[in-house]
Design a protein that fits this description.
This protein has an 8-stranded parallel sheet with strand order 1-4-3-2-5-6-7-8, with helices on both faces. The chain has a single domain, classed as Rossmann fold, CATH 3.40.50.720. Helix 1 links the parallel strand 2 and strand 3. The chain has 286 residues and is of the alpha/beta class. Helices cover 47% and strands 14% of the residues. The protein has 9 helices and 8 strands.
Length: 286
Amino acid sequence: MTTSDPTGSSDTRPREGRASFDSGPSGPRRRALVTGASVGIGEAFAERLARDQYDLVLVARSRDRLEAIAKRLGESRGVSVEVLVADLARPHDLALVEQRLREEPTFDLLVNNAGVGTYGSFAELDVEREEDEVRLNVIAPLRLTRAVLPGMLERRQGAVINVSSLAGLAPTPYNATYGATKAFVNSFTEALHEELRDTGVRLQLLQPGFTRTEFQERAGMNTAGVPDFAWMEPIAVVDASLEALRRGDLVCVPGGANRAVAAFTSLLPRSLARRISGAAAKRFGG
């Protein structure tokens, strides 16, 4: 395990060889950078990619959590795990992660997973926190994707997974900023997919629904009324994502219930979709 933070950097061992996303754990060693890797979907990506014998760079704010994950994965899976402590809503920290991607242009996979949500009437929310939400959910994946793409394009292989949400499919009253940031991620990822067609570089738009992580609690949402069938475990989301990546799918909506919601939303007039979304969101404040 190696560790970096915004006050310094660390070297990692060089790699030899490349493998496609269809290769199994016995293939040449690959490398991935995962943001928001200390908990939830990001941690599940780290676990699964280590199992598939990726060397990892894990990014999050919590040093203790990252180092515990890195130690566990290094010992159990025999992979190299670098810890990079950074708050991606802070321009200086974000620039250091961009530099990490550029200085060694051999990453096979970037997972833009870090994100945050807020809940409540927009007129009453802390505007500084809303701005940080835009920086983390929009600016960070934009800049990190830009940093990693030149190396991937030069080698004509690699992939970027942008973690969005079903919340990006329609306007989300009381989740207004969050839904808008995820709508950006949706459009951005689909546009890049077309730009990069036939280059060997893949884009995936991952759109999970309710997932058992700390996200809802941090956003101040009361999800006690959400039925059990609507929830997914983080590792199930990740398994669906990586399987879809192997198939070459642009959009991955994991879980049957989530796919039904996505299909239903696509059929609704936008005015009706936002009214239904607003009525549902009011329940999360209780």
